[in-house]
Amino acid sequence: MTQKFDVVVIGAGPGGYVAAIKAAQLGLKTACIEKYQDKEGKIALGGTCLNVGCIPSKALLDSSYKYHEAHAGFAIHGIEAKGVTIDVPAMVARKNGIVKNLTGGVSTLFKANGVTLLEGHGKLLANKQVEVTAGDGTTQVVEATNVILASGSTPVDIPPAPVNQDTIVDSTGALEFQAVPKKLGVIGAGVIGLELGSVWARLGAEVTVLEALEKFLPAADDQVAKEALKILTKQGLKIRLGARVTGSEVKKKQVNVNFTDADGEQTLTFDKLIVSVGRRPVTTDLLAADSGVNLDERGFIFVDDYCATSVPGVYAIGDVVRGAMLAHKASEEGVMVAERIAGHKAQMNYDLIPSVIYTHPEIAWVGKTEQVLKAEGVAVNVGTFPFAASGRAMAANDTAGFVKVIADAKTDRVLGVHVIGPAAAELVQQGAIGMEFGTSAEDLGMMVFSHPTMSEALHEAALAVNGQAIHIANRKKR
C-alpha cells in the first residue's frame, strides 16, 4: 500500500530538515528523504552545511586560530607558550565529532517532531508522487499533497584542475588534510577559498590564492573589501587577482598550476590545491520528465517569491533556487514554505539576509553597499568607527577593522551595515534586527549599549552617520 503524506521533503540539509520539522509542528504528516551517507555508511542528516560545509569549516577555523594565538598572540598578554605544536589528525577528529553530534541531533529532532525519515534518493514524478530509491536499489513510491525540493548544491568542477581528492581537492577534501601542506594553492578568493586558505595558513602553510576576477570580494562594500585584502595579505595569504587558471599537472605528489595574469603565462607548484570556484544546484535525476517542474537557464529550479514552482503544491528552497547559497536563507525559506502550506501568509525579506566570511577578523554585511546605492542614485550619509578606538577590542588585542553604517541622506533610514573586525557576524545581526524594524541611524545612536563591548562600535558608527560620534573625531560636513 502506497504511503501518503501531507508534505514530502527531498533533502535533509538546513533547508529541508527545517522545513520538515516546521511542517510537522504545524500538524502536517511529513516525510523527509535523504541519501547522504557518512564514512560509516550510515545516513547522515544536515546536508552540506553540517557534514562538509559551515560547521566543520568553523571547527577548523577555531582550532587553527587558537594555535595561531598560542604562537603569535599570547606574549602580549604575558603568557609564555614555548614548543606549541599542532596535531592535525586530532584537530580533524574533533571536527568530525562535532559533525556527528549535530547530525545525530537532527535525527533526534525528527523523532521528537514525528517526521518520517525515508532513506534513499528522492525523485519527483508526475502528480506529486515521489520515488525513493534505497541504497540497495529497491524502490518505493510515496504520495504527497505537497512536495518541497531541497536537494542542495555541490562544488563546481573546472576542467583545468580536475579534482582527485588527493593532490587536487574540493572544499570537502580540504577539510580532511591529515598534515599541513608546505605549499597550498587555492583557486577562488570567495568565502570558501578565504576561509580554508586561512585555516592552513595559520598552521604554517604557504598559501597562494588565485582569483580570476580583477576585483576582490565584489559582493562586499568596497571599503570593507579593500581593508580585508590588506589584512589578509598581512596575515600571509598571497592573493593574486586577475589570475585565470588554464591547466594543471600532477607530478610526484605535487601539482603544477598554469595560469595567466597581467604578467602573462605563469606556473606555480603546490603540494595541495583547493578548487573553490563556487557551487552548482543538485538537480541530477531529481525531476522526472513529466514532473512539470521547470529549470531556469542556469539549472536552478524556477520559483516565485514564495518558493512555489510551476506545479501547484510543489515548492523548492535553498541552493536549488535563486538567491544566495546560504544555510540561513535555506532554513527561513523552509519555514516560510511550511507555513504557507499550512495556510498562513508567511513571507521572507530577501533584502535583509546577512552574509558572513569567517576569516579573522570576520567580514559581514547586511543590506546594500555604498557603491550599489550610489549606482542607484541614492544620496547617503556614512558613519564608520574603527575597532582601534574600542576599549573592548583593545582589551582583547583584536583591533583590526571597523564598523560602517550607511543611511539614506533624506530619511536617515539605515540601508546597510558592514563590518570587518571582531564579532562582525554578531554586530551585523544587530544591524539586521534594527533594519527589519525600519531603524534610523538616529534610533541606533539613541539606544544604550553596554560598556565595554564590541557592540559600541556599531553605536558609534551610527552616531558618526550624523557627525555625532563621541569616541572619534567627526568629519566636518562640507
Automatic annotation (TrEMBL):
Residues in Pyridine nucleotide-disulphide oxidoreductase dimerisation domain copies? 353-462
UniProt keyword terms in alphabetical order: Cytoplasm, Disulfide bond, FAD, Flavoprotein, NAD, Nucleotide-binding, Oxidoreductase, Redox-active center
Which chemical reaction does it catalyze?
A: N(6)-[(R)-dihydrolipoyl]-L-lysyl-[protein] + NAD(+) = N(6)-[(R)-lipoyl]-L-lysyl-[protein] + NADH + H(+)
In the UniProt record, does the keyword Magnesium occur?
A: no
Q: Which residues form the FAD/NAD(P)-binding domain?
A: 5-334
GO terms classed as biological process: 2-oxoglutarate metabolic process
Enzyme active site:
451 (proton acceptor)
CC terms in the record's Gene Ontology section: cytoplasm
EC number of the protein: 1.8.1.4
Q: Which cofactor does this sequence's record say it needs?
A: FAD
Instruction: Report disulfide bridges, numbered on this chain.
Output: 49-54
Specify which residues bind NAD(+) according to the UniProt entry for this protein. Answer: 188-195, 211, 278
Q: Where in the cell is it found?
A: Cytoplasm
Enumerate the InterPro entries for this protein. Class-I_Pyr_Nuc-Dis_Oxidored (IPR050151), FAD/NAD-bd_sf (IPR036188), FAD/NAD-binding_dom (IPR023753), FAD/NAD-linked_Rdtase_dimer_sf (IPR016156), Lipoamide_DH (IPR006258), Pyr_nuc-diS_OxRdtase (IPR001100), Pyr_nucl-diS_OxRdtase_dimer (IPR004099), Pyr_OxRdtase_I_AS (IPR012999)
Q: Name one Pfam family in it.
A: Pyr_redox_2
Gene Ontology MF annotations: dihydrolipoyl dehydrogenase (NADH) activity; flavin adenine dinucleotide binding
Query: By its UniProt entry, which NCBIfam families does this protein fall under?
Result: lipoamide_DH
User: What family does the Swiss-Prot or TrEMBL record give for this protein?
Assistant: Belongs to the class-I pyridine nucleotide-disulfide oxidoreductase family.
**Biological function:** The branched-chain alpha-keto dehydrogenase complex catalyzes the overall conversion of alpha-keto acids to acyl-CoA and CO(2). It contains multiple copies of 3 enzymatic components: branched-chain alpha-keto acid decarboxylase (E1), lipoamide acyltransferase (E2) and lipoamide dehydrogenase (E3).
| Miscellaneous | The active site is a redox-active disulfide bond.
Complex formation: Homodimer.
Name this polypeptide is given: Dihydrolipoyl dehydrogenase
